[in-house]
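tool=predict chain=A
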Amino acid sequence: MKDKIKKIQNRIDNDPKLKETISNIKPQKTFWGIMGIILFFFLPELITYIWQPELVNWFHSHSLTERLSIQRWLCKQFEDMFASGVSWFNITFGMVMLFWVLRSK
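tool=predict ok
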């Protein structure tokens, strides 16, 4: 089993296509790369943390007053999403992405 894992690890380490793909996926270590991670992962969770009751009440009132059923459904979905609170997965994934970008060469 250890040999099999070592063989797979060697294949991953020596595969140029995989290295190129990973380097293309990784955000750049620039101001905009770091700000993109912060704006995409941390800012929505901060907004949810600060204004959660107001957002839930606003979407609830709109889910009752909207004329179209699709808009009522959409407001209900947003209400449920904000009622569940902060997404710890997003915060953790954002921290991993920041660590990956800041620790790179």
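The helical segments are 2-13, 16-25, 31-65, 69-83, 88-103. The chain has a mean pLDDT of 89.
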